User: Fold this.
Amino acid sequence: MSELSVNHLLGIKYLNESDLHLIFETADRFKEVINRPIKKVPSLRDVTIANLFFENSTRTKLSFELAEKRLSADILNFSAAQSSVKKGETLEDTVNNILAMKVDMVVMRHPHPGAASFLSKKVDACIINAGDGTHEHPTQALLDAFSIREKLGDVAGKKVVIVGDILHSRVALSNIYALTALGAEVKICGPKSLIPKYIESLGVTVEPDLRKALLWCDVANMLRVQNERMDKSYFPSVREYAQLYGLNLPLLESLNKSIVVLHPGPINRGVEVTSAVADSEHAIILDQVENGVAIRMAVIYLLAEKLIIPTNA
Assistant:
């Protein structure tokens, strides 16, 4: 029987191609579940999952929580803003106190890169990384690749451009790992100041001209400028950024071909994409949201099946 090669989901770079295909095939089955009248399965009825969010989140937090409920898991929600972390408690102590309540799995978002990996070595529980600083956001990359597969039939051989703030984006890094592992060609497009110097060592190329990148690609993944992670100005103005790297409908329609537009959210309408693009038939942004629940159900189920093996699964 197929199983994941890892005991935690810390990042896409730790997964192999077989892991990715297993997650997608499992998500296919769960997508059928969440589109039927009775949307729950009893697979994880004896499993307790703690959601630890040390950073603000809307889509990811809700998506994980819904995925856990669809699998019938017991859920413990934790917000750092209302916790003893504010009193100086360490991450390790916080999590060990939660695990003392007999929690089996921890879904964690943290502002520091490597926090999930650190925790996996310190506590006796399965860790799922829901975003660690500017490092990785593995489930977002999984749902992005799954959405491309669903729309275009396969990821292998497809040309994908990732546009925007690559420097501060955990989504970009996880997407690069996932897409290249699945056989896609990847280009990066954005202001030079927002592209890491090491980026081409990851097997991608840089195209500074958005129109050229769009003429090349099958898929454009438009990323938000992460203002909250910036300690200085990386480009002259938002208006200039939107003119050079924002996707609008006239530009899209001038390509004389159809491309698929993704966005991980939240969208800054009028900056990285206009409302006309976000709401157009080219965009599969809401499909990404729906697929996020199925992907997270698949990840949670496969890790729980391997590590915990509930008696009623």
In short: The longest helix spans residues 285-307. The CA atoms of residues 10 and 117 lie 6 Å apart.
